[in-house]
């Protein structure tokens, strides 16, 4: 059928339909109209063009379908969603291969390159000018081709859902790759290579939310107040966990634990609350690395005890292997034991009887504590075992608490022992002096209930509270009026407002059954009430004596540790005055360990055993810093002058005591005389005498 006859047929058909509704006259009009336009060659041409177009389009669609079918046999395709780790592997790998290098279409962002997880295509415009870098990213919808191991691969990055405001990381969107090969395993190889490259290059992974369900992640929460929380904190500090964060809280408070800095720094950097730190956990057992994400949630601050509770550290492990989590906890524990706790925190009270101040002291090594035999190891083991035996105490129905009484001469190491122990066990010290103003039965109870469960409660000089009433204190001063009447007693040490029953109540209270170690120290154990020191309240009693020869020798050696390498190298010079070196600000001659040992032995022989405290000896040695020969040479003179000093003090004391006794006697005599006078004045005898006198 010719084109024109087709048109005539179509139009006639339309005319027929129209005639059914429009009538015969209309049909005739339309038929004549169709005839007229079909005679027009331009109209005929137009209809021919439409017809041909329809055929071409149908052919194209058939061809495309066949091409798709054909290419599925020769091309392997894969799609990666931005919300998955596989996306990060592939994107990182593609960027490394500079796939977008030849591109003409970019998205440019201004950002600090260090904060970008995937920024290898960044074009640095200079980061030293105080402005962020420009980072070139492939524009979405740009297809790129590159060759990989002999295969052509095309890459297409679809429009991202949106970019995270803080990090610039894209959320939503996809990345599709097509590998021009019939072999499926090329895709496997490509993904494996991208994954391995990602692991090796250790790029910062993107952040993930804790709530995000993912079979690729493990989440563990460490609640504040639990020991494992402290282990993790110690690990985060040592691993410089702030490496991946841009959000900090800065503190100059010594009590705040910085995560990325040593304890000696004056300014501490801490992660801003609720931000996510990412860093690599190097597993010492397997030698492999796993990315961690850390979220620290602060707890509620108790302004009385200056403690925090209810917070947590959440760890998201970029691994689904639970053994990695176990390894992480073990590593953190080891780190905590090695050097995690480098300071000891001590809480002090104010004069209103409240926890007011916190100070930190450097941790003291166990080796610096000099006690006879193995007392220190025993006490550390005892406390450690107690802390690990909560279940046992609960099962046995025994209150979970332990009391230690350290008694003996001043300066023999009682306080030092507690300091060392706190460092060893990673516990904080809550220090109460019963003689402090503001401490009475009520405030004592409140203070103790405000302490956390795992801590050391230190009650120093506990005897201040309970001097025996029937024994007169030798330093007591009686204040009498002019008539010898007793006005007041003035005595040292000061009396405490705490009563014995108040203290016993506090020690026995339910709140003190939560794994707390109570330490009491005294120089006068004989003054303590037996009820206070009975087992159950004071379970371990340790006597501290004045130094014996072994201890004296050890203190000496501690003062003059072995020479460092520099000193040893120079030791062979003949003239000791010439080969001096400096330790701190002191310039002193150099001595070998053997020489120091010999001086130490002589020194220990010279000091009479059981006569001086370590604090005393330390005081003398401090005047001979870096000079063991001088220390040895001067000891006899020091002992002599010390003995003289002691004798003088004893004589003075004796004199004062005699004077006091005399004053007391005179005062009593005066008081007796005054009493006699008064009695006479009031008595009938006097009245009668007076009457008699009056009579005369
Ligand atoms: N056994 C010891 N080992 C190491 N150092 C000690 C020892 N005894 C005392 N010292 C040193 O002496 C100083 C005082 O010690 P410490 O305060 O522990 O004595 P103390 O027995 O508690 O005295 P006090 O009864 O007067 O409170 C500290 O600086 C400490 O370094």
UniProtKB/TrEMBL annotation:
The keyword Phosphoprotein does not apply. Residues 50-239 form the BCS1 N-terminal domain. GO terms for molecular function: ATP binding; ATP hydrolysis activity. It is found in: Mitochondrion inner membrane. Transmembrane segments: none annotated. Residues 400-548 form the AAA+ ATPase domain. It catalyses: ATP + H2O = ADP + phosphate + H(+). This is p-loop containing nucleoside triphosphate hydrolase protein. It comes from Mycena venus. The lineage of its organism: Eukaryota, Fungi, Dikarya, Basidiomycota, Agaricomycotina.
